[in-house]
Known about the structure:
Chain A is an alpha+beta fold.
Amino acid sequence: xGEEPAPPAVLDLDELQIPGGGHTGRRHILSILVENKPGVxxxxxxxxxxxxxxxxxxxxxxxxxxxxSRITLTVDGALHPIDQVTKQLHKLVNxxxxxxxxxxxxxxxxxxxxxLAAEGxxxxxxxxxxxxxxxxxxxxxxRSLTVEVTGTDDKIEAFEDLxxxxxxxEMVRTGEIAVARGRSTT
Amino acid sequence: MRxxxxxxxxxxxxxxxxxxxxxxxxxxxxxxxxxxxxxRHVLCRHEAGAGHAAEGYAKASGRVGxxxxxxGPGATNLVTPIADAMMDxxxxxxxxxxxxxxLIGTDGFQEADxxxxxxxxVKHSILIQDPREIPRAISEAFHIARTGRPGPVLVDxxxxxxxxxIDYDPIDSVSLPGYQPTVEGNAKQIKxxxxxLANARRPVFYAGGGVIxxxxxxxxxxxxxxDAFPVxxxxxxxxxxxxxxxxxxxxLGMHGTRAANYAMDEADLICAVGARFDDRITGKLSEFAPxxxxxxxxxxxxxxxxxxxxxxxxxxxxxxxxxxxxxxxRALETDGSRLDGWWERIRGWREKHPxxxxxxxxxxxxxxxxxxxxxxxxxxxxxxxxxxxxxxxxCAQYYDFPKPRRWINSGGLGTMGFGxxxxxxxxVACPDQTVVCLxxxxxxxxxxxxxxxxxxxxxxxxxxxxxxxxxGMVRQWQELFWDRxxxxxxxxxxxxxVKLAEAYGATGMRATEKxxxxxxxxxxxxxxxxxxxxVQVTKEENCYPMIPAGQAARDMVG
Lengths: 186, 558
Ligand SMILES: Cc1ncc(C[n+]2csc(CCOP(=O)(O)OP(=O)(O)O)c2C)c(N)n1
Ligand SMILES: [Mg+2]
């Protein structure tokens, strides 16, 4: 094989395109490794508010390395140019790595606790729903039931819709956490 | 040694010869170390003055500027210069004292959450928690401040920790896993940019302060001169391309020249270098340079496509990228005559709309003439610092800066009171150069206390005060857009500036006549020590041309 021929110097400026990466129109899960130092979370949340970006959900926890924490957050790519969000995050010195997880190559889970006013016959109905959703009843009192449900945010929202009519006293959600599918690290 | 002695050692290791600051309880240990530590300390009269002096020092020299303050009010007084340094990417390190560790969070005397307050306006900040971290923290602060896109870094040192004895080993390398600026620039993108330039018929180079930060002015000129590329600069970029010059269009943006703004408007290709498409440049975004494709060269990836989408983004250090782009461009052996038509158009605008003003028929000093007189008196060779307002824009328009680091102003934050302290810092950094501060009568009062610093420290800056007795820029907007309802802009009883200068131990002069202005300025320049020249100019003069806020280049008035 010879050398690649030099490209012709002629270029029609009209052919130049803007590389993509702006508003994607979908929800993004950003998995961010940060140094486990004081103030890091404040820097990240401060950056979001300062730049006018909304965080939909946020989950923070340790990793297998005590010096490093992982922040998983979800952002609406219809409202914000995701590449701006990630580029601004990258500028924080304590941010080590950001991965914008591809939905199809990611498993994401969230845990939610539903406290329901379950009296009379609705009790049985709720327990049944919980089973269908592979949820667990984790607390019972005379006038309430608390159910734990794990899953994608869709699943949790579906469960919420289902049980709301039975008297939802309160709901607590962790925000999604996620890992890349397969052997590779997130 | 004590941790504070290590701080001073670190400063010396970073090549710092001078720091600016003001002491207090929480940084007493630092001041004790400075007493005989071998670094010059310039005692400013307000921490804001110290911070701006550090900025002036950095902008004039390219070295990192350092300012010190105590906890609480000392630190909060630094907030404005820190924000200013962030907006204009000035390499600066701020070392603040903090209350003793056990008092943090208790609302202790002079406690303020300094890292919290400054978080949105720093490039990075470090709150010391272990005295042994101090040397590394200082080295990291300098590394972060000066590399990549420069900016302010704050190190907050609790008083008790600063007194602890530590082992000091000079830090010779810093490695931060989360901080690795891209410098080289993607070769393919550079090739593509060269091709685009070779095929452009109406190209414009739009250069900003990033070129100056990168020390890449020569490289920029070489590229622009590789063909007859027209060049314009932002208010931060003035001096990045030598003015005056055939290919120089003047400044662009709100108070830029018509030639520059119209060229942007009609360009088919705009090559932005170290510039960030600020709203004072673009005006109405949807109508900004509607026919252009964009090459955007910047060290900060987040600037690319932030406001205006770039067709050919190139992330990296302009000093590395521009020479490669020159080589690629030259290799294409283009025919320069393709730009003839474009130049004809540009020359048409230049001839039809040169920068100009109506001079007085009597002896009245027009503000624009004052800048011209300053240019003449200084031979166009001074380092000029400026406050913020009309005088700043007139200076940007009428003083041609032939070199980088000669024009020092607050562009991004637009901080009144920047001029005098930054002149102090610039003169300390460059004692052999003439340093002039073009002040506004409103702005100068915001940091006039630094005249005492100039006198005591024997820093002979020359302040040329453009005295229009108004907060002139605001008055101009009220005249043009608020139906002449002058609200809160008349300076009323102004100080007698000559007496004030003398009270500070400086020399005061006054100029009221056009005919002798240059002479008076020359006299001021020849006078030893700091001088304030009160130049009485036309009170109600407007700065033109102008793109009214939120409008397009085509809508320029005046
Ligand atoms: C700290 C600060 N406060 C307010 C402003 C708003 N402002 C912009 S220009 C200006 C007038 C400045 O007056 P002067 O220094 O006399 O300059 P002139 O416009 O008259 O030349 C003001 C108040 C500012 N830029 N900075
Ligand atoms: Mg004024």
